[in-house]
Amino acid sequence: MRIARASTPDGVVTGEYRDGVVVTDGNEYAVGTDAALLAPCEPSALYCVGRNYAETLEQMAYERPEEPDFFIKPPASVIAHEEPVPYPSFTGELTYAGELAAVIGERCRDLAPAEVPEVVRGYTIVNDVDALDQPGRTARKAFDGSGPLGPWIETDVDPTGLDMHTEINGERRQEANTELMLFDPFEVVAFLSERFTFRPGDVVAFGSPANPGLIQPGDVVEITYEGVGTLRNRVVDPAER
Known about the structure:
The chain contains 4 helices and 19 strands. By secondary structure, it is mainly beta.
């Protein structure tokens, strides 16, 4: 099942997404007509793992980490499917990175990997937008609009063995499978749960395959994960917002 949040004439609603329609409490809202999709959850944080594909390590000349290497994006980084990604004035090197992500469904801590499926509500997609020329991960990755998220939460998918691809203006730039992760989704969530108390709606992103790259105003970024969907956002100059 696909779970979506949407802005409607009746306010913000959460319901099942079926063929362009959000269904909730007996009401139906057509996306694009009666409703606009919002980010599918409201996380207190996006916990993002880096360096989680061997090919990425080779491409970037990184050493293999002994444990998941993570950073955090704040709630203000989150924008929805089809919402414009602002190109910040403080950078000249903005990049995309297409990542699978879990949405936590309940308050939890200190999980074993085998317990993780019990607390995950479902899976969605994150674009880890990065101002590559800024010093330090917080400056690079934690700014407003740096966490496109969506388009919905897919509850019926196994996160292992999913094909993915990223396209920029229709040109394929990334292509991989989640089975190539160094730390699988269950290991990552369990590792982070030793350090943080997760809250409902929190997001854990599992890292990007090789070939994250530069984007410019006007570029359309489309990230697709098999069985989940496609997250699409256009990059804009902040003056266009």
